[in-house]
Write a structure and sequence with these properties.
alpha/beta, Rossmann fold, 7-stranded mixed sheet, transport, ATP binding, P-loop_NTPase, ABC_transporter-like_ATP-bd
Length: about 350
């Protein structure tokens, strides 16, 4: 199912912005610290849907948790609506009302002992909502596509289908009238027949409510169907970003090319990456992807004259804006007029 999102104007000031963000965790048994997020700039504008794409362990979930205020950055900062995010007290509580999380597993995120009504109303009660709770819950369920909402009030999660449970989770986020949703693999646990319905719902909410969204996923097909812009993450850093059509139809970074090559509809032979999966406690020198890079392994980087740079010269952090950018010595050497992306 192909859905055509309507992108916002690129001149709009960011709603959420990460600037030179780093998150490290203590190493095992006193070893080197794990650099889960290792220098990230990322902007999300009002009404924009950004897909954050990468394999497991690349740091995308840690980045999302940091943007939500669940993890405090080691360095760098997050700003929302022009103001730096505070990680304690009332400001953080107020922020979490404006930025809501949608988890990938509705069965795990819904309390089996709570009715649908209580699950959706929980956020209102936490934040001391002073209006008509029943009306707010009914409105959120209706916007999430569960109609008539009263029919679902007294149901329990086990009485619902997977798609209905995910809609309840989305309703629980919508009831607080947020400005931004962070959706972590929002359709990963759903049947293929339901995935398109949930993606269409997220797009409709963007159109009707002006919601922004960060969609965290390893699924490039999902990014194609829902996002305005895509950011490809590898070993703690964004290595390619730009409009979704541009990045996914003409990928410039070898890692993006490898991810796309294994899609069922991709032409040619899938790229099999060599080497070990990335270890955030041992980030290699030079390009962090060079140990697994098919361009370097094939000799193409040597022929282009960038092999030494790939192994030894670090790349700058990509800016958080909407311009097409790539952090790759070979890609810039191949298309020098686009070198400003570094």
């Amino acid at each position: 199912m192909t859905i055509s999102p309507t992108a916002p104007e690129v001149t709009t000031a960011p709603l959420l912005s990460a600037q030179d963000l780093h998150v490290t965790f203590p190493g095992r048994h006193g070893g080197p610290r794990a650099r889960a997020v290792d220098g990230v700039d990322l902007d999300i504008r009002p009404g924009e849907i950004v897909a954050l794409v990468g394999e497991s362990g690349c740091g995308k979930t840690t980045l999302a948790r940091c943007l939500l205020g669940l993890v405090e950055p080691t360095s760098g900062r997050v700003t929302f609506d022009g103001r730096p995010l505070e990680y304690s007290g009332r400001p953080l509580k107020a922020y979490r009302k404006r930025v809501q999380l949608v988890l990938q597993d509705p069965s795990g995120s819904l309390n089996p002992r709570h009715t649908v009504y209580d699950a959706v109303a929980e956020g209102l009660r936490i934040h001391g909502y002073g209006g008509d709770e029943r009306t707010a819950v009914a409105g959120a369920l209706s916007r999430a596509g569960l109609r008539p909402p009263e029919r679902f009030f007294l149901r329990y999660p086990h009485e619902l289908s997977g798609g209905q449970r995910q809609r309840v989770v989305i309703a629980g986020a919508l009831v607080l009238e947020p400005e931004l949703l962070v959706a972590d693999e929002p359709v990963a646990s759903l049947d293929a027949s339901v995935r398109g319905e949930i993606l269409a719902l997220l797009l409709r909410l963007r159109t009707e409510l002006g919601l922004s969204a960060l969609v965290v996923t390893h699924d490039l097909g999902l990014a194609w169907n829902i996002a305005d812009r895509v950011a490809v993450m590898y070993l703690g850093r964004i290595v390619e970003t730009g409009a979704v059509e541009q990045v996914l139809t003409a990928p410039r970074h070898p890692y993006t090319q490898a991810l796309l090559s294994v899609l069922p509809e991709a032409p040619g032979t899938p790229v099999v990456l060599t080497g070990e999966p990335p270890d955030p406690s041992r980030v290699p020198s030079g390009c962090r992807f060079h140990a697994r890079c098919q361009i370097l392994a094939s000799g193409e980087a040597e022929r282009t004259g960038v092999a030494d740079a790939c192994r030894n010269q670090d790349l700058k952090v990509l800016s958080g804006g909407g311009a097409s950018q790539v952090a790759c010595h070979w890609a810039v050497a191949e298309v020098p007029e686009r070198g400003a992306g570094l």
